[in-house]
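Bumping my old thread because nobody answered last time. Still need a sequence for this structure:
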């Protein structure tokens, strides 16, 4: 049997993490890893289903291997495969389907499929019944300065616009010792920073607790994982993925402030700055509660980067509700925002709601918020112009014909420093120059 395999990853950082794990599994089994645009014997497409656009992109990428290698095996894995696997096989877009929570068996599944000449094409589980975290070993071989560690899977929130709880199942937390072990391996391989990620990391530990408060029954929380990684792994910087505002408490922030490796960047999901829209979205907080959490963060971390996601054009969103959102995000003054136009997703509560907003209206509202986000981002850069920032170099790039080294500060400013101004691999202190282009803020080494 030929041993060439290629991967395509769509969607979130969790998918990328899992693709890295599947790649390591195939490498350990003796396979040659090829680029997705090259000829291969097996193509693995790690799909996404967060929006209808994501579904379309997944189907598009599943079609591509047929043109490159008509006789190759095409396997659909991930969230869209979990939701629409039978349809993908029936339409000939995938030879076999590997759903969520069986990705650790991907090599065995593919080889069994080839051996049996396609007798079985569906390899998936009833994801709603899964209660244990699936570990996928990831190769510690260094590729960049920072790496992701998946600490949790699944979601119990059931926001009215989201299909992910049906594709990923209920919350499942990874053992704290396993997380620390992976962080230690990454540190030994030369990584300086880890990002703790998952589908809903704010729920870490709730599946192991006898109540909604993990510490009441002795269970670990997210803060316990952060502390353990900081004490026992040798990692220099710890960053967190997207969180819910409810997880932010005085106690958590006090403990975070004592962790020297912690990067003060908080990505707090907002989705809307209108209480009536938040209620229709089934988001479990009010705008005032959200604002209080941001104030708490800035009390402990004055220069923290606070970023968020906002959806425009949610069903029934009126001009008044959008104006409430615009004023609220301006009030919070985020360091950056990700703006999304609402995408109707079949199978969700929101898809059945009355008052679907016209695309032209959503587009205009999105434009307004994107411009506001850019303005607030510039304000954040100015606020940080007179303080030393610790940048972790990641890669060299050409900007206007000149070579720069780019990397992120602790509070998530992407800095671009002239490549010939330093040689260090580790974090360096830099000063912003006041210039920026695209997502890069130009900087120079800090001089005491």
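Sorry it took so long. Here it is:
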């Amino acid at each position: 049997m030929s041993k060439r395999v290629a991967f395509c990853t769509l969607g979130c950082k969790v998918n990328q993490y899992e693709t890295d794990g599947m790649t390591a599994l195939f490498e350990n089994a003796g396979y040659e890893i090829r680029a997705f645009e090259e000829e291969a014997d097996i193509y693995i497409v790690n799909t996404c289903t967060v929006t209808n656009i994501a579904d379309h992109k997944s189907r598009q990428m599943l079609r591509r291997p047929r043109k490159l290698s008509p006789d190759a095996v095409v396997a659909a894995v991930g969230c869209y495969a979990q939701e629409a696997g039978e349809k993908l096989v029936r339409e000939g877009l995938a030879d076999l389907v590997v759903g969520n929570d069986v990705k650790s068996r991907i090599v065995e599944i593919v080889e069994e499929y080839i051996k049996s000449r396609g007798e079985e094409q569906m390899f998936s589980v009833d994801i709603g019944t899964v209660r244990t975290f699936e570990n996928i070993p990831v190769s510690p071989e260094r590729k960049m300065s920072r790496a992701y560690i998946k600490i949790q899977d699944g979601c119990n929130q059931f926001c009215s616009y989201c299909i992910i709880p049906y594709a990923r199942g209920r919350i499942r937390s990874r053992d704290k010792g396993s997380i620390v072990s992976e962080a230690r391996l990454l540190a030994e391989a030369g990584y300086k920073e880890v990002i703790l990620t998952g589908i809903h990391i704010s729920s870490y530990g709730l599946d192991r607790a006898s109540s909604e408060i993990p510490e009441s029954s002795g269970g670990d929380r997210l803060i316990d994982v952060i502390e353990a990684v900081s004490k026992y792994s040798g990692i220099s910087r710890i960053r967190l993925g997207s969180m819910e505002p409810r997880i932010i408490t005085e106690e958590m922030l006090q403990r975070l402030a004592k962790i020297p490796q912690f990067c003060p960047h908080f990505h707090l999901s907002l989705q809307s700055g209108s209480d009536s829209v938040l209620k229709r979205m089934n988001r479990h907080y009010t705008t005032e509660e959200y604002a209080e959490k941001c104030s708490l963060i800035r009390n402990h971390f004055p220069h923290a980067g606070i970023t968020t996601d906002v959806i425009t054009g949610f069903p029934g969103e009126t001009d008044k509700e959008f104006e409430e959102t615009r004023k609220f995000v301006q009030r919070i003054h985020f360091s950056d925002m990700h703006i999304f136009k609402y995408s109707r997703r079949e199978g969700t509560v929101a898809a059945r709601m009355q008052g679907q907003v016209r695309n032209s209206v959503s587009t205009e509202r999105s434009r307004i918020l994107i411009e506001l986000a850019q303005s607030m981002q510039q304000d954040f850069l100015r606020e940080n112009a007179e303080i030393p920032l610790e940048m972790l170099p990641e890669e060299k790039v050409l900007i206007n014909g000149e070579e720069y080294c780019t990397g992120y500060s602790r509070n998530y400013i992407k800095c671009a420093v002239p490549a010939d101004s330093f040689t260090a691999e580790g974090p360096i202190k830099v000063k912003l120059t006041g210039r920026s282009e695209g997502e890069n803020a130009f900087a120079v080494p800090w001089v005491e």
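The chain has a mean pLDDT of 93. Let me know if any region looks off to you.
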